[in-house]
């Protein structure tokens, strides 16, 4: 028996099960992940990249996350030099 005419969910629980999300994450190859990150970087998104830690004395942190702006350069289209006069 219905207790009310309409019901709106509070959105408290996930609508996709955990195993489906894990499976989708496993299907993404490291190459595809890098390509997705580069595409997001070209669009101007804030991309974080995981790299090996350059400070070898920090043995508890073998990898660190850094902003892609620090590693990758934004490629601008090549402009020919114009001569005035």
Describe it for me?
The protein is an alpha+beta fold and 85 residues long. The chain has a domain of 53 residues. Helices cover 32% and strands 12% of the residues. It contains 3 helices and 2 strands. The protein has a two-stranded antiparallel ribbon with strand order 1-2. The longest helix has 13 residues. The model has no long low-confidence stretch (mean pLDDT 89).
Structure summary:
With 85 residues, this protein is of the alpha+beta class. Helices cover 32% and strands 12% of the residues.
So how many helices?
3
Helix content range of the residues, please?
Answer: 25-40%
What is the mean predicted local confidence, pLDDT? 89
Q: Report the principal-axis shape.
A: extended
Structural class: alpha+beta
Order of helices and strands: HHEEH
The percentage of residues in β strands lies in: 5-15%
Distance between the termini: 86 Å
Radius of gyration, whole Å: 23 Å
What is the number of E strands? 2
- Main β-sheet, spatial strand arrangement: 1-2
Give the biggest beta sheet.
Answer: 2 strands, antiparallel
Low-confidence stretches: none
């Amino acid at each position: 028996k219905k207790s009310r005419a309409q019901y709106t969910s509070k959105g408290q629980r996930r609508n996709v099960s955990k195993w489906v999300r894990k499976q989708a994450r496993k299907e993404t190859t490291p190459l595809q992940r890098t390509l997705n990150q580069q595409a997001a970087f070209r669009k101007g998104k804030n991309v974080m990249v995981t790299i090996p830690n350059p400070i070898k004395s920090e043995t508890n942190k073998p990898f660190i996350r850094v902003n892609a702006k620090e590693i990758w350069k934004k490629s601008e289209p090549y402009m020919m030099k114009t001569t005035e006069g």
